[in-house]
Amino acid sequence: MTPALPRLYEAIDGTWPCARAVTAGPWTLREGDGGGKRVSCATATGAWTPDDLAAAETAMRLLGQDALFMLRAGERRLDDALDAAGYDLIDPVNLWVLPVAALIPEDMPRVMTFAVWEPLAIMRELWAEAGIGPARLRVMHRVKGPKTGILGRLDDKPAGTGFCGIHEDIAMVHALEIRPAYRGKGLGKWMMRRAAIWAQDNGAQWMAVLCLQDNAAANGLYASLGFECVGQYHYRIKTEAAT
Fold first, then answer.
1. Which pTM does this prediction carry?
2. Are 186 and 153 in contact (CB under 8 A)?
3. pLDDT tens for each residue of 118-170
């Protein structure tokens, strides 16, 4: 049976962890250390009041972060309250899932893809070109479970990189990036298959990946591989300028 959404949300935290998480009333607050929205957002853990919303906003400001909430399935009341409080909706995300075994090919092209940990210098360069800098690399290093980088090559040149971590039996791919000159040539599919081989070797039963809803190329890649879109989430943000 496909993992339920709560398990997938847990896998996000497990495979892309924040620097520090604090339970404060009905919220989990995350300190991101510059690692992006996923590691800097607040999420609801129980019943809340308007006063609780204001307290969470203040706490996030004290962390030196924007007031940022992640809205998951079934959180319409919170979504509406944040909208009314002046929070903007940003970055709606699709959650894609597939059994690991369905991604394992009979044959893999030789010397095209590699599972490598720790990341090689060229992998760091590829991520840097895509705007994935030291703060997000620190996120990868914080993962406590099995983890690996994925290096892809085309025409005997480094062309793509990605990261995969495992939480319980779910392997989740993050930061998959292909150099623009090599996109549309099938490398992403082979890199995902390499991640699946590594995941299977490390005990995972499911592959999962997150993708912004407006990234048509990446969503098309996962659909073409047989992934099922099982849910969505989005963020609500109130910047300092908006307060």
1. 0.94
2. no
3. 999 999 999 999 999 999 999 999 999 999 999 999 999 999 999 999 999 99
- Confidence grade of residue 240 (pLDDT, cut at 50, 70, 90): low
Which of 174, 190, 182 is closest to 96 using CA atoms?
174
pLDDT in tens, 103-125: 999 899 999 999 999 999 999 99
Task: Report the greatest alpha carbon distance in the chain.
Answer: 58
- CATH 3.40.630.30 location in the chain: 97-232
CATH of domain 97-232: 3.40.630.30
